[in-house]
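WARN  no MSA supplied for this record, continuing single-sequence
INFO  ligand: guanine
INFO  echoing inputs
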Amino acid sequence: MTEEKLKIYHGNIVYSKSQDALAVHRDSYIAVKNGTVEGIYDLFPERYVGAPLTDFGSSAIIPAFSDLHVHAPQYPQRGLGMDCLLADWLNTYTFPQEARYSDPEYARQVYGAFLNDLIANGTFHACVYGTIHREATSWLLDRMEQLKLRAFVGKVNMDMQSPEYLCETTEESLCETERFLEAHAGNRYAKPMITPRFAPTCSFELLKGLGKLGAKYRVGMQTHLVESRWEAAEALRLNPDCGCDTGIYERAGLLDNGPVVAAHFIFPTDEDIRILKRHDGYAVQCPDATVNVIAGIMRTATLSDQGVRLALGSDIAGGHLPGIYTQAARSVQLSKLKWFYEPEENRPIPFAHAFYMATKGGGTLFGKVGSLEPGYAFDALVIRDFSDPFRSLTPEETVERFCYTGNQGDIVARYLGGEALANEISF
Ligand code: GUN
Ligand code: FE
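INFO  complex generated
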Protein backbone atom coordinates (compact mmCIF):
# COMPACT_ATOMS: atom_id res chain seq x y z
CA MET A 1 0.00 0.00 0.00
CA THR A 2 1.44 3.36 -0.99
CA GLU A 3 0.56 4.93 2.38
CA GLU A 4 3.41 2.90 3.85
CA LYS A 5 5.86 5.04 1.90
CA LEU A 6 4.52 8.30 3.26
CA LYS A 7 7.01 10.30 5.26
CA ILE A 8 6.79 13.73 6.85
CA TYR A 9 9.63 16.18 7.45
CA HIS A 10 9.44 19.30 9.60
CA GLY A 11 11.58 22.40 9.18
CA ASN A 12 11.78 25.72 7.34
CA ILE A 13 11.04 24.83 3.73
CA VAL A 14 12.56 27.07 1.05
CA TYR A 15 12.46 26.70 -2.73
CA SER A 16 12.10 28.84 -5.85
CA LYS A 17 8.56 29.79 -6.77
CA SER A 18 9.87 31.55 -9.87
CA GLN A 19 13.11 33.20 -10.87
CA ASP A 20 11.95 36.32 -9.05
CA ALA A 21 10.87 34.90 -5.72
CA LEU A 22 11.61 32.26 -3.12
CA ALA A 23 8.74 30.38 -1.50
CA VAL A 24 9.28 30.20 2.26
CA HIS A 25 7.25 27.92 4.55
CA ARG A 26 8.45 28.54 8.07
CA ASP A 27 7.96 25.87 10.71
CA SER A 28 6.10 23.63 8.26
CA TYR A 29 5.61 19.99 7.31
CA ILE A 30 6.44 18.49 3.94
CA ALA A 31 4.74 15.21 3.05
CA VAL A 32 6.60 12.87 0.71
CA LYS A 33 4.82 9.92 -0.90
CA ASN A 34 6.85 7.27 -2.68
CA GLY A 35 9.72 9.71 -3.15
CA THR A 36 7.60 12.55 -4.52
CA VAL A 37 6.47 15.71 -2.73
CA GLU A 38 2.78 15.42 -1.89
CA GLY A 39 2.26 18.78 -0.17
CA ILE A 40 3.46 21.34 2.37
CA TYR A 41 1.38 22.05 5.48
CA ASP A 42 1.48 24.62 8.31
CA LEU A 43 0.37 21.98 10.80
CA PHE A 44 0.97 18.23 10.89
CA PRO A 45 -1.83 16.99 8.58
CA GLU A 46 -4.35 15.00 10.59
CA ARG A 47 -4.92 12.45 7.90
CA TYR A 48 -1.27 11.44 8.14
CA VAL A 49 -1.29 10.71 11.85
CA GLY A 50 0.97 7.71 12.37
CA ALA A 51 3.23 8.49 9.41
CA PRO A 52 6.90 8.72 10.39
CA LEU A 53 7.99 12.28 11.17
CA THR A 54 11.56 13.56 11.02
CA ASP A 55 11.98 16.88 12.77
CA PHE A 56 14.73 19.15 11.45
CA GLY A 57 13.76 22.01 13.79
CA SER A 58 14.86 25.37 12.45
CA SER A 59 17.05 23.91 9.69
CA ALA A 60 16.21 24.78 6.11
CA ILE A 61 14.89 22.09 3.76
CA ILE A 62 15.81 23.04 0.18
CA PRO A 63 15.92 21.32 -3.22
CA ALA A 64 19.14 19.55 -4.24
CA PHE A 65 21.29 21.33 -6.81
CA SER A 66 21.81 20.79 -10.54
CA ASP A 67 25.25 21.24 -12.12
CA LEU A 68 24.85 21.66 -15.87
CA HIS A 69 28.53 21.73 -16.72
CA VAL A 70 31.21 19.67 -15.02
CA HIS A 71 34.26 17.68 -16.18
CA ALA A 72 34.65 14.56 -14.04
CA PRO A 73 38.18 13.74 -15.31
CA GLN A 74 39.45 17.18 -14.29
CA TYR A 75 38.64 16.52 -10.62
CA PRO A 76 42.30 15.84 -9.71
CA GLN A 77 43.47 19.18 -11.14
CA ARG A 78 41.02 21.51 -9.36
CA GLY A 79 42.70 24.62 -8.02
CA LEU A 80 45.77 24.16 -10.25
CA GLY A 81 46.95 26.35 -13.10
CA MET A 82 44.41 28.97 -12.21
CA ASP A 83 46.76 31.74 -13.32
CA CYS A 84 46.51 30.55 -16.96
CA LEU A 85 44.03 31.52 -19.62
CA LEU A 86 41.97 28.94 -21.49
CA ALA A 87 44.28 27.74 -24.29
CA ASP A 88 47.37 27.52 -22.03
CA TRP A 89 45.38 25.90 -19.25
CA LEU A 90 44.01 23.26 -21.62
CA ASN A 91 47.42 22.46 -23.11
CA THR A 92 49.45 22.56 -19.91
CA TYR A 93 47.10 21.04 -17.35
CA THR A 94 43.90 19.65 -18.78
CA PHE A 95 44.92 17.61 -21.81
CA PRO A 96 47.73 15.72 -20.00
CA GLN A 97 45.32 15.03 -17.12
CA GLU A 98 42.59 13.76 -19.45
CA ALA A 99 45.03 11.44 -21.24
CA ARG A 100 45.26 9.35 -18.06
CA TYR A 101 41.72 7.97 -18.53
CA SER A 102 42.93 5.43 -21.06
CA ASP A 103 43.57 3.54 -17.82
CA PRO A 104 40.16 2.31 -16.61
CA GLU A 105 41.43 1.60 -13.11
CA TYR A 106 42.64 5.18 -12.65
CA ALA A 107 39.27 6.35 -14.03
CA ARG A 108 37.29 4.27 -11.53
CA GLN A 109 39.23 5.68 -8.62
CA VAL A 110 38.92 9.30 -9.68
CA TYR A 111 35.30 9.02 -10.77
CA GLY A 112 34.35 7.37 -7.49
CA ALA A 113 35.91 10.22 -5.53
CA PHE A 114 34.36 12.79 -7.86
CA LEU A 115 30.85 11.41 -7.38
CA ASN A 116 31.37 11.25 -3.66
CA ASP A 117 32.23 14.95 -3.59
CA LEU A 118 29.33 15.85 -5.87
CA ILE A 119 26.84 14.10 -3.60
CA ALA A 120 28.46 15.48 -0.45
CA ASN A 121 27.96 18.97 -1.86
CA GLY A 122 24.30 18.35 -2.64
CA THR A 123 24.50 18.07 -6.44
CA PHE A 124 22.18 15.22 -7.45
CA HIS A 125 21.64 16.15 -11.10
CA ALA A 126 24.48 16.86 -13.47
CA CYS A 127 25.53 17.26 -17.06
CA VAL A 128 28.96 15.65 -17.12
CA TYR A 129 31.88 15.44 -19.54
CA GLY A 130 34.07 12.36 -19.57
CA THR A 131 37.06 12.13 -21.90
CA ILE A 132 37.53 10.67 -25.38
CA HIS A 133 37.84 7.26 -23.68
CA ARG A 134 34.62 5.25 -24.06
CA GLU A 135 35.31 2.61 -21.46
CA ALA A 136 36.10 5.03 -18.64
CA THR A 137 33.17 7.29 -19.51
CA SER A 138 30.81 4.31 -19.61
CA TRP A 139 31.88 3.34 -16.12
CA LEU A 140 31.06 6.83 -14.88
CA LEU A 141 27.65 6.76 -16.52
CA ASP A 142 26.84 3.29 -15.18
CA ARG A 143 27.85 4.34 -11.68
CA MET A 144 25.57 7.37 -11.82
CA GLU A 145 22.72 5.19 -13.06
CA GLN A 146 23.34 2.76 -10.20
CA LEU A 147 23.27 5.62 -7.70
CA LYS A 148 20.04 6.93 -9.30
CA LEU A 149 21.64 10.30 -9.97
CA ARG A 150 19.86 12.03 -12.81
CA ALA A 151 22.49 12.92 -15.34
CA PHE A 152 23.61 13.37 -18.89
CA VAL A 153 27.11 12.06 -19.49
CA GLY A 154 29.20 12.41 -22.61
CA LYS A 155 32.14 10.68 -24.20
CA VAL A 156 34.11 13.67 -25.48
CA ASN A 157 34.86 14.02 -29.20
CA MET A 158 38.03 15.68 -30.53
CA ASP A 159 39.61 14.85 -33.89
CA MET A 160 41.85 17.83 -34.65
CA GLN A 161 44.05 20.55 -33.16
CA SER A 162 44.58 18.37 -30.10
CA PRO A 163 47.71 16.71 -28.77
CA GLU A 164 48.43 13.40 -30.42
CA TYR A 165 47.87 11.54 -27.14
CA LEU A 166 44.30 12.91 -26.90
CA CYS A 167 43.13 12.96 -30.49
CA GLU A 168 40.91 10.49 -32.31
CA THR A 169 40.48 9.94 -36.02
CA THR A 170 37.08 11.10 -37.23
CA GLU A 171 36.03 7.55 -37.92
CA GLU A 172 37.17 6.27 -34.56
CA SER A 173 35.42 9.11 -32.76
CA LEU A 174 32.10 8.36 -34.49
CA CYS A 175 32.41 4.63 -34.03
CA GLU A 176 33.20 4.86 -30.32
CA THR A 177 30.39 7.38 -29.81
CA GLU A 178 27.89 5.05 -31.45
CA ARG A 179 28.99 2.20 -29.20
CA PHE A 180 28.61 4.51 -26.20
CA LEU A 181 25.12 5.61 -27.22
CA GLU A 182 24.01 2.06 -27.95
CA ALA A 183 25.29 0.74 -24.64
CA HIS A 184 23.31 3.21 -22.57
CA ALA A 185 20.17 3.68 -24.64
CA GLY A 186 17.94 1.99 -22.05
CA ASN A 187 19.09 3.96 -19.01
CA ARG A 188 16.55 5.48 -16.68
CA TYR A 189 18.45 8.07 -14.63
CA ALA A 190 21.85 8.73 -16.19
CA LYS A 191 21.70 9.04 -19.95
CA PRO A 192 24.23 9.55 -22.69
CA MET A 193 24.70 12.90 -24.39
CA ILE A 194 26.75 13.79 -27.46
CA THR A 195 29.73 15.88 -26.35
CA PRO A 196 31.92 17.51 -29.00
CA ARG A 197 34.50 19.31 -26.89
CA PHE A 198 34.27 22.61 -28.78
CA ALA A 199 34.59 23.82 -32.36
CA PRO A 200 38.41 24.27 -32.30
CA THR A 201 38.95 20.52 -31.74
CA CYS A 202 36.17 19.08 -33.91
CA SER A 203 36.12 18.83 -37.71
CA PHE A 204 32.84 19.66 -39.40
CA GLU A 205 32.80 16.14 -40.79
CA LEU A 206 32.87 14.83 -37.23
CA LEU A 207 30.09 17.19 -36.14
CA LYS A 208 27.93 16.14 -39.08
CA GLY A 209 28.48 12.48 -38.23
CA LEU A 210 27.55 13.19 -34.62
CA GLY A 211 24.41 14.97 -35.84
CA LYS A 212 23.38 11.78 -37.65
CA LEU A 213 24.01 9.71 -34.51
CA GLY A 214 22.00 12.20 -32.45
CA ALA A 215 19.07 11.83 -34.85
CA LYS A 216 19.35 8.03 -34.92
CA TYR A 217 19.47 7.61 -31.13
CA ARG A 218 17.42 10.73 -30.25
CA VAL A 219 20.20 12.12 -28.05
CA GLY A 220 20.93 15.78 -27.31
CA MET A 221 24.22 17.66 -27.21
CA GLN A 222 26.46 19.58 -24.84
CA THR A 223 29.47 21.66 -25.80
CA HIS A 224 31.39 24.84 -24.95
CA LEU A 225 29.85 27.74 -26.88
CA VAL A 226 31.19 31.25 -27.43
CA GLU A 227 33.18 30.83 -24.25
CA SER A 228 36.01 33.19 -25.08
CA ARG A 229 36.81 35.64 -27.86
CA TRP A 230 39.60 33.32 -28.95
CA GLU A 231 37.26 30.31 -29.12
CA ALA A 232 34.51 32.17 -31.00
CA ALA A 233 37.00 33.52 -33.57
CA GLU A 234 38.65 30.12 -34.00
CA ALA A 235 35.26 28.44 -34.48
CA LEU A 236 34.45 30.82 -37.33
CA ARG A 237 37.91 30.65 -38.86
CA LEU A 238 37.42 26.88 -39.17
CA ASN A 239 33.77 27.11 -40.28
CA PRO A 240 33.53 30.37 -42.23
CA ASP A 241 30.11 29.55 -43.74
CA CYS A 242 28.31 29.02 -40.47
CA GLY A 243 27.73 32.61 -39.41
CA CYS A 244 28.28 32.05 -35.70
CA ASP A 245 29.51 29.39 -33.25
CA THR A 246 26.01 28.07 -32.48
CA GLY A 247 25.27 27.97 -36.21
CA ILE A 248 27.96 25.31 -36.67
CA TYR A 249 26.08 22.85 -34.49
CA GLU A 250 22.72 23.73 -36.03
CA ARG A 251 24.08 23.12 -39.49
CA ALA A 252 25.57 19.80 -38.35
CA GLY A 253 22.09 18.68 -37.22
CA LEU A 254 23.08 18.49 -33.56
CA LEU A 255 20.38 20.73 -32.08
CA ASP A 256 17.22 18.82 -33.00
CA ASN A 257 17.60 15.52 -31.23
CA GLY A 258 17.24 16.22 -27.51
CA PRO A 259 18.34 18.74 -24.91
CA VAL A 260 20.98 21.30 -25.91
CA VAL A 261 23.37 22.51 -23.24
CA ALA A 262 25.77 25.36 -24.01
CA ALA A 263 28.50 25.99 -21.47
CA HIS A 264 29.57 29.60 -20.89
CA PHE A 265 27.79 31.46 -23.72
CA ILE A 266 29.68 34.61 -22.77
CA PHE A 267 30.19 36.28 -26.15
CA PRO A 268 27.06 35.38 -28.17
CA THR A 269 26.01 37.34 -31.23
CA ASP A 270 22.30 38.00 -31.76
CA GLU A 271 22.32 35.03 -34.12
CA ASP A 272 23.83 32.73 -31.47
CA ILE A 273 21.00 33.77 -29.14
CA ARG A 274 18.29 33.25 -31.78
CA ILE A 275 19.59 29.78 -32.61
CA LEU A 276 19.95 28.67 -28.98
CA LYS A 277 16.39 29.85 -28.25
CA ARG A 278 15.03 28.17 -31.36
CA HIS A 279 16.22 24.85 -29.95
CA ASP A 280 15.21 25.63 -26.37
CA GLY A 281 18.84 25.29 -25.28
CA TYR A 282 20.34 26.06 -21.90
CA ALA A 283 23.08 28.64 -21.44
CA VAL A 284 25.17 27.58 -18.47
CA GLN A 285 27.04 30.15 -16.46
CA CYS A 286 30.12 28.79 -14.68
CA PRO A 287 31.07 31.73 -12.47
CA ASP A 288 34.34 30.47 -10.98
CA ALA A 289 35.60 29.13 -14.32
CA THR A 290 34.78 32.46 -15.86
CA VAL A 291 37.03 34.21 -13.37
CA ASN A 292 39.76 31.54 -13.35
CA VAL A 293 40.50 30.67 -16.97
CA ILE A 294 38.03 32.40 -19.24
CA ALA A 295 38.00 36.08 -18.30
CA GLY A 296 34.56 37.01 -19.56
CA ILE A 297 31.25 37.47 -17.76
CA MET A 298 27.92 36.17 -19.00
CA ARG A 299 25.16 38.77 -19.36
CA THR A 300 22.83 36.77 -17.13
CA ALA A 301 20.07 39.35 -16.60
CA THR A 302 20.07 40.43 -20.23
CA LEU A 303 19.97 36.87 -21.58
CA SER A 304 17.20 36.00 -19.15
CA ASP A 305 15.20 39.04 -20.34
CA GLN A 306 15.73 37.81 -23.89
CA GLY A 307 14.13 34.48 -22.99
CA VAL A 308 17.23 32.27 -22.81
CA ARG A 309 17.07 29.41 -20.29
CA LEU A 310 19.87 29.83 -17.75
CA ALA A 311 21.52 27.40 -15.37
CA LEU A 312 24.73 27.12 -13.34
CA GLY A 313 27.76 24.87 -13.66
CA SER A 314 30.83 24.24 -11.52
CA ASP A 315 32.96 23.52 -14.62
CA ILE A 316 35.37 21.55 -12.45
CA ALA A 317 38.28 22.13 -12.99
CA GLY A 318 37.98 25.46 -14.80
CA GLY A 319 36.05 26.18 -11.62
CA HIS A 320 37.71 24.99 -8.43
CA LEU A 321 34.72 24.20 -6.17
CA PRO A 322 32.12 21.46 -6.63
CA GLY A 323 29.28 23.12 -4.70
CA ILE A 324 26.73 24.77 -6.96
CA TYR A 325 25.61 26.83 -3.96
CA THR A 326 28.97 28.63 -4.13
CA GLN A 327 28.31 29.38 -7.79
CA ALA A 328 24.92 30.89 -6.98
CA ALA A 329 26.67 33.42 -4.75
CA ARG A 330 29.34 34.07 -7.37
CA SER A 331 26.68 34.60 -10.03
CA VAL A 332 25.24 37.49 -8.05
CA GLN A 333 28.72 38.96 -7.58
CA LEU A 334 29.54 38.69 -11.29
CA SER A 335 26.25 40.25 -12.39
CA LYS A 336 27.22 43.34 -10.41
CA LEU A 337 30.74 43.49 -11.79
CA LYS A 338 29.47 43.18 -15.36
CA TRP A 339 26.92 45.93 -14.72
CA PHE A 340 29.48 48.14 -12.99
CA TYR A 341 31.97 48.06 -15.85
CA GLU A 342 29.45 47.80 -18.70
CA PRO A 343 26.15 49.21 -17.41
CA GLU A 344 24.44 48.87 -20.78
CA GLU A 345 25.26 45.14 -20.95
CA ASN A 346 23.74 43.79 -17.74
CA ARG A 347 22.18 44.57 -14.40
CA PRO A 348 22.65 42.92 -11.01
CA ILE A 349 20.56 39.80 -10.43
CA PRO A 350 18.92 39.22 -7.06
CA PHE A 351 19.92 36.20 -4.97
CA ALA A 352 16.52 34.60 -5.68
CA HIS A 353 17.36 34.50 -9.39
CA ALA A 354 20.74 32.85 -8.82
CA PHE A 355 19.18 30.27 -6.49
CA TYR A 356 16.57 29.56 -9.16
CA MET A 357 19.35 28.92 -11.70
CA ALA A 358 21.01 26.56 -9.23
CA THR A 359 17.84 24.56 -8.51
CA LYS A 360 14.56 24.84 -10.41
CA GLY A 361 15.95 26.43 -13.58
CA GLY A 362 18.72 23.90 -14.16
CA GLY A 363 16.53 21.11 -12.79
CA THR A 364 14.08 21.34 -15.70
CA LEU A 365 16.69 19.57 -17.83
CA PHE A 366 16.30 16.42 -15.74
CA GLY A 367 12.53 16.28 -15.15
CA LYS A 368 10.58 17.29 -12.05
CA VAL A 369 13.50 18.13 -9.80
CA GLY A 370 14.82 21.34 -8.30
CA SER A 371 11.69 22.44 -6.45
CA LEU A 372 9.67 21.21 -3.46
CA GLU A 373 6.27 21.82 -5.00
CA PRO A 374 3.84 18.89 -5.20
CA GLY A 375 4.79 16.42 -7.92
CA TYR A 376 8.55 17.10 -7.70
CA ALA A 377 10.98 14.35 -6.67
CA PHE A 378 12.03 14.77 -3.05
CA ASP A 379 15.66 15.41 -3.97
CA ALA A 380 16.39 17.63 -1.02
CA LEU A 381 19.03 18.92 1.35
CA VAL A 382 18.75 19.98 4.95
CA ILE A 383 20.88 23.02 5.77
CA ARG A 384 21.68 23.86 9.39
CA ASP A 385 20.24 27.08 10.79
CA PHE A 386 22.90 29.75 10.11
CA SER A 387 21.65 32.06 12.89
CA ASP A 388 24.38 33.00 15.34
CA PRO A 389 24.32 34.58 18.81
CA PHE A 390 24.49 38.05 17.25
CA ARG A 391 21.67 37.74 14.79
CA SER A 392 18.78 35.42 14.21
CA LEU A 393 18.22 34.70 10.52
CA THR A 394 15.06 34.14 8.53
CA PRO A 395 14.99 30.87 6.55
CA GLU A 396 15.81 32.71 3.32
CA GLU A 397 18.73 34.44 5.03
CA THR A 398 20.04 31.04 6.15
CA VAL A 399 19.94 29.84 2.54
CA GLU A 400 21.72 32.96 1.30
CA ARG A 401 24.41 32.78 4.00
CA PHE A 402 24.90 29.08 3.26
CA CYS A 403 25.53 29.89 -0.41
CA TYR A 404 28.07 32.57 0.50
CA THR A 405 29.83 31.05 3.50
CA GLY A 406 28.79 27.41 3.75
CA ASN A 407 30.37 24.11 2.86
CA GLN A 408 29.35 20.47 2.67
CA GLY A 409 29.54 20.15 6.46
CA ASP A 410 26.57 22.48 6.75
CA ILE A 411 24.38 20.00 4.87
CA VAL A 412 23.03 17.86 7.69
CA ALA A 413 20.88 15.48 5.63
CA ARG A 414 20.41 14.54 1.98
CA TYR A 415 17.44 12.87 0.26
CA LEU A 416 17.52 11.41 -3.22
CA GLY A 417 14.13 10.31 -4.58
CA GLY A 418 12.88 10.34 -0.99
CA GLU A 419 15.65 8.03 0.27
CA ALA A 420 18.04 9.32 2.92
CA LEU A 421 21.67 9.14 1.82
CA ALA A 422 24.35 8.17 4.28
CA ASN A 423 26.50 11.10 5.31
CA GLU A 424 29.62 9.16 4.51
CA ILE A 425 29.36 7.71 1.04
CA SER A 426 32.16 5.36 0.09
CA PHE A 427 33.06 3.69 -3.16
N1 GUN B 1 36.88 24.46 -23.72
C1 GUN B 1 37.30 23.32 -24.27
N2 GUN B 1 37.58 22.41 -23.34
C2 GUN B 1 37.33 22.99 -22.18
C3 GUN B 1 37.42 22.53 -20.84
O1 GUN B 1 37.81 21.41 -20.54
N3 GUN B 1 37.05 23.42 -19.90
C4 GUN B 1 36.61 24.69 -20.20
N4 GUN B 1 36.26 25.49 -19.22
N5 GUN B 1 36.55 25.13 -21.43
C5 GUN B 1 36.89 24.28 -22.41
FE1 FE C 1 34.08 23.18 -19.41
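Residues 88 and 253 are 31 Å apart (CA to CA).
INFO  checksum written, moving to next record
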